[in-house]
Write a structure and sequence with these properties.
CATH architecture of chain A: 3-Layer(aba) Sandwich
Helix content of chain A: 40-55%
CATH architecture of the largest domain in chain B: 2-Layer Sandwich
Number of domains of chain B: 2
Strand content of chain A: 25-35%
Structural class of chain B: alpha+beta
Radius of gyration of chain A: 16 Å
Number of strands of chain B: 12
Shape of chain B: elongated
CATH superfamily of chain A: CheC-like
CATH topology of the largest domain in chain B: Alpha-Beta Plaits
Shape of chain A: globular
Number of domains of chain A: 1
Largest interface: A-B, 29 and 28 residues
Order of helices and strands of chain A: HEEEHHEEHEEH
Oligomer: heterodimer
Helix content of chain B: 40-55%
CATH class of chain A: Alpha Beta
Number of strands of chain A: 7
């Protein structure tokens, strides 16, 4: 797990550099905590995100292990991010086409940075779909994923995002296909063996 | 690609048709090889791109445009070629990132196209990487969204502003006062309300007519605005000839001072009002109430107290300032 935290922090560093140049202000990202769940045991309430609707950027990855990545932002946080970047005054439901596209880009930058860090550190490569944006309640988002018997493991990353003086929090959830956790761990073991 | 279609002749057919398809598309397509050299630059791009080479095909993408390759696009291309990861560059964050112009618009100074860009990784038969950059013209959406947003803001402002005086309307006050009240409670700071009523306004209306009465309301509103400190922003038309002001971080003594200043300022306007029983010109009666809110105090009871203070001021003979009676 420590190795994974390390990998994702490398990714967070890359994402922060890309985001900073895109929004022309200092963005800091860190991944303080990673948790691994069996999706059957995921207690939606325990994640502390409530039943509120969330802005979610979704991307699917295929490679040595398949993953569905969701970057989740609670309504207030998603809004703050877009507002900081664009200065809009809309609610999440009202996010315009162009603002949704911006959320997708932010999610895409973070997800790609994490995946490219993983690719570099573990020496693997992935194929991925373009990001899509949706607004759902967390329970709906997770239920859709949990119902997929092919992906019974969920890796949840807590991400702290600081845009200048604002502090926002997001969650990155990776749903991993079943035999792949072993593979992931095997790759990590190999990585650990090297250092 | 050919696996999509039926085998045989049709597939060769498809092969021949593909360049036409690519050139007929109403979006920009650029295909790059792993060395970032341009393999394809479709007609849409040729019609709009401002490039510094005769033919971009065969040239490194970094040398095609006068200003080189924008950094964000470079990172996206790198993600596609090195890691096989797709990216998108949103219009809101990148705008008209590449020098693409709509030569039909703007005459001598053509408009730069608002873009939305997707960068997609592709794999060749031998596993070598390619990358396709797909550029959409979103100029129309950008204009539409800008218009809609401007309209939304105008409507919102109209919904919260009193059309005649330009002050806040009652609805806006009802929304703002609780916020100010709760802030005072949180910070344990005094908050004051000042309520004003134009004396014998009905009589003025009857004597001088509606248009002139409207002018009085406008003048009183302007005078209030000009007399109050700039920092005071909650001034509302509360009813027909009633106005209300929220004074944050202002105790009873300051509220009494401000009330008196407002009263004097209106009096000094010397607007003729022969039907008034108090003075031959327009005057106002003013009530004020102050407190440091605690758990037991409510916005509605504070409003009731300032209303009571105004009633006392009227009872005392009008054109004066009063606090509510002590409980």
């Amino acid at each position: 797990m420590e190795a994974l935290t390390e990998i994702f922090n490398i990714g967070a560093g890359r994402a922060a550099a890309s985001l900073s140049s895109v929004v022309a202000s200092s963005v800091k990202l860190s991944v303080p905590r990673i948790e691994l769940y069996d999706v059957a045991d995921v207690d939606i309430d325990a994640l502390g995100l409530g039943q509120a609707r969330l802005g979610a950027v979704l991307q699917s990855y295929a490679g040595p292990f398949d993953a569905q990545a969701m970057l989740l932002f609670p309504e207030a946080n998603a809004l703050e991010i877009v507002r900081d970047m664009l200065g809009g005054t809309m609610s999440v439901e009202e996010l315009s086409e162009l603002e949704q596209e911006t959320m997708c880009e932010v999610g895409n930058i973070i997800l790609n940075a994490c995946l490219s860090a993983m690719a570099d550190v573990l020496g693997v490569s992935f194929e991925a779909t373009l990001p899509s944006y949706s607004i759902e309640s967390l329970s709906t988002l997770l239920k859709n994923s949990i119902d997929d018997p092919g992906q019974p493991l969920m890796l949840i990353l807590n991400i702290d995002m600081i845009i200048e003086k604002r502090n926002t929090q997001g969650f990155l959830a990776f749903l991993l296909s079943y035999p792949s956790l072993d593979m992931l761990m095997a790759h990590i073991d190999r990585f650990l063996g090297k250092i | 690609m050919s696996s999509v279609l039926v085998p045989g002749d049709e597939s060769t057919h498809l092969h021949k048709m593909l360049p036409q398809v690519v050139n007929a598309m109403s979006l920009g397509l650029i295909l790059l090889d792993a060395q970032r050299s341009v393999l394809l630059w479709n007609t849409w791009m040729r019609q709009r791109g401002s490039v510094v080479v005769d033919d971009p095909v065969g040239v490194g993408i970094a040398s095609v445009f006068a200003d080189g390759l924008p950094n964000a696009l470079g990172i996206a291309i790198d993600n596609a070629l090195r890691y096989g990861l797709p990216s998108l560059l949103s219009n809101a964050l990148h705008g008209a990132i590449l020098p693409l112009f709509d030569y039909r618009k703007g005459g001598d100074q053509p408009e730069r196209i608002q873009q939305s860009i997707h960068v997609l990784p592709l794999k060749g038969e031998g596993g070598e990487r390619y990358c396709v950059v797909q550029i959409s013209d979103v100029s129309a959406s950008v204009v539409r969204e800008r218009k809609l947003r401007a309209q939304a803001e105008t409507l919102k402002e109209q919904a919260f502003t009193d059309g005649l005086t330009g002050l806040m309307n009652r609805r806006h006050f009802d929304e703002r006062f609780p916020l100010e009240f709760r802030r005072a409670r949180r910070q344990q700071m005094p908050i004051s309300l000042v309520m004003l009523d134009i004396d014998f306004f009905k009589a003025y209306n009857d004597r001088y007519g509606h248009p002139n009465a409207d002018k009085v309301l406008i003048t009183v509103a302007k005078t209030l605005r000009a007399t109050l400190p700039q920092s005071i922003d909650v001034i509302a038309r509360y009813g027909g000839e009633e106005f209300i002001v929220v004074l944050s971080a202002c105790d009873e003594r300051d509220a009494a001072d401000i009330g008196e200043k407002l009263r004097a300022a209106i009096e000094q306007m010397q607007i003729p009002h022969v039907s008034s029983d108090v003075a031959p010109y327009v005057t106002v009666s003013i009530g004020f109430a102050s407190l440091i809110p605690d758990v037991s105090s409510s916005e509605s009871s504070m409003l009731a107290r300032v209303d009571e203070a105004l009633y006392i001021a009227k009872h005392k003979g009008r054109n004066c300032v009063s606090s509510p009676v002590r409980a």
